[in-house]
Design goal:
- By secondary structure, the protein is mainly alpha-helical.
- The protein has one domain.
- It has ten helices and no strands.
- The protein is globular, with a radius of gyration of 16 Å.
- The two termini are 22 Å apart.
Length: 214
Amino acid sequence: MSETLPQSVQTEAPATAMDRRSFLRTGLGGALFLGTVSVTAGLSGCASAPAGRDYPMPEAMDQSYEFRFLTRDDIVLFKALLPAMVGPGLAEEQVVRRQQIQATIERIDAGIHQFGPANQKELRGLFDLLNFGLTRVTVARVWSSWENVSPETAHAFLERWRTSGIGLFNNGYIALTKVSNVAFYGHPDHWHLSGYPGPPGFAVDSLPQFKDNA
């Protein structure tokens, strides 16, 4: 697992402040790069619209959920990354495991939907960077499409970005693990996995986007 629960719920500022500062802290160069990737990805046919209710979710417990930020490509991306980030916390029984992953992705979407436009723009650039075939290969060094990526390959990718000397990659890793771990371990059903009685109030309040979005 890429981060433990206490790390995943820590934050430096309340959510209202997050709307006024860079979530990824990419700097001007990183922001321009992500913006260019998003434009290029869009022109190349990558999914750009939220998945809405049209995404096939046979394992979902709530068939009425409407994705308002994540695209179909983003959903596939998180399906590949979540087992590497929270794998030990996922159920072994495959149906339950898929339901946990789907519910976590829905909470990620609901949380990001409540972020400010600037942070949404940066996350869109990050996700497009990972979904666009050329940058997925050259920057993430993931050769196959995300739907074919194993947890081991996903973990190796995350470790490369975690230990990279490039700030954009480090911050991208932090962003991916933060939204994923808060969405998973921040849910009451999963607090017991670390023997944790629940995050302190200040931690839950700091990212209210992920609260009560089961």
